[in-house]
Design brief:
The protein is an alpha+beta fold and about 120 residues long. It is built from 3 helices and 8 strands; from the N terminus they run βββββαβββαα.
Length: about 120
């Protein structure tokens, strides 16, 4: 099973969302920042690394808030809230096509949001 992290950053009731770059897994889809946990890496370290790699910023992980296992059992994602420590974010073009700060209402109107992201928002109310 692949283990991964998802990073939830909220500022002024707006969530940091990315649109994944074309040519990668789920290219063009909207989601939160995240990715695979490297062998021997902690969830906390993966949260900080993935955020830095995808959007060039730094975060302080706060707490694990949710867990999602894909129905086929091949992927488990650990969802973490995090505090944004650096204001300027720059998309890594190899992984991220676009960065947006969106309200829950705006996210609900987006097309092509990954199912687990919609499920998280629905369940976290």
């Amino acid at each position: 099973m692949i283990e991964g992290v998802v990073v939830i950053v909220v500022v002024d009731q707006r969530y940091l969302m990315i649109r994944r770059a074309a040519g990668i897994l789920a290219g063009g889809a909207w989601c939160f920042v995240g990715g695979a946990i490297d062998p021997g890496e902690s969830q906390v370290d993966a949260v900080m690394r993935e955020f830095r790699e995808e959007v060039g910023g730094s975060v302080r992980p706060i707490s694990k808030v949710w867990e999602y296992t894909r129905p086929d059992g091949r992927l488990r994602l650990h969802w973490w809230t995090a505090e944004l420590l650096s204001e300027e974010l720059i998309a890594n073009p190899a992984e991220v096509q676009e960065i947006r700060w969106l309200s829950r209402e705006e996210i609900a109107l987006l097309e092509n949001v990954l199912d687990s992201n919609r499920q998280y928002l629905d369940e976290s109310g």
